[in-house]
Amino acid sequence: MEPGPGMGPGMGSGMGPGTGPGMGPGIGPGAEPQRWPAASCVLTGASRGFGRSLARLLAPRLGRGSLLVLLARSEAPLAQLATELRGSAASGLRVECVAAELSTQQGLRKAVEALRELLPSAPPGPLLVVNNAGSLGDISKSFLDLTDPAEINTYFAFNVTSALCLTTAALQAFGKRPGSSRTVVNISSLCALKPFKNWALYCSGKAARDMMFQVLALEEPDVRVLNYAPGPLDTDMQLLARTKTGDPEMRRHFQSLQESGQLIDCSVSAQKLLKLLEEDAFSSGAHVDFYDV
């Protein structure tokens, strides 16, 4: 989720070409997507919004024998999506669902154990991990209203801790395989770089995730890492932003985005992310904004 254009400067698109092997060939406008090799993909927050759109675009690209692991809190929409993808994708795509509440230790443990079970026997091709799951927190509250440690810790457990633990589990379970690339995507935001009133939790959570994945890029040069800010998406989170944000000016800004048609369809932004991955020209660890692609 993004505050939208006009709220701050566009944030750069990376510092140079990547050196990784890339996720697959690029595709031209209107062209049928070319298939990647048999790959393993892990996608959190897959049941709705940007994650659901990304899953629908990923499935037809994945070669025969690929594994797609969908994680989300809500079991019913997750299962519905999995059924849809199994029916529409090429035969041989294995879709696994993991319904887990990632803000709790029990839910996170369930998700980690699922990855440890699924990924060691995954196909030998590329690994793609997309950390999309996230939440706004209570944006009706100002900084001085955030006094409950349990509320704050639950927020960071979901938005930071789970992303770290799931990424670690995926990379360890998949392991280093000769000829297999590994790519980690963090769905970021302009809020990782710029503060906004009433969004102390969201801004600090996004900033923490960006830096966390920059450290991964530094420590593991053979892992391609991308912090992708998807732009102001037309999702339920934007509805919350324009109705629940405590600061009146911020609320009016989000309302104007919706009224002026500036919100971005999730599939459009997801397509840009796949283009970035397929071209593989970003600097590992870079923060790349939708408007810079």
TrEMBL record:
Family assignment from sequence similarity: Belongs to the sepiapterin reductase family.
InterPro entries linked: Biopterin_syn/organic_redct, NAD(P)-bd_dom_sf, SDR_fam, Sepiapterin_red
Annotated region (Disordered), positions in chain: 1-35
Name assigned to this protein: Sepiapterin reductase
CDD domains to which the protein is assigned, alphabetical: SPR-like_SDR_c
Domain of life: Eukaryota
Transmembrane segments: none
EC number, UniProt record: 1.1.1.153
Subunit and interaction comment: Homodimer.
Native species: Aythya fuligula
Predominant cellular place of this UniProt entry's protein: cytoplasm
Chain intervals with Gly residues compositional bias: 1-29
NCBIfam families in the record: sepiapter_red
Glycoprotein is among the record's keywords: no
Keywords: Cytoplasm, NADP, Oxidoreductase
A GO term for molecular function: sepiapterin reductase (NADP+) activity
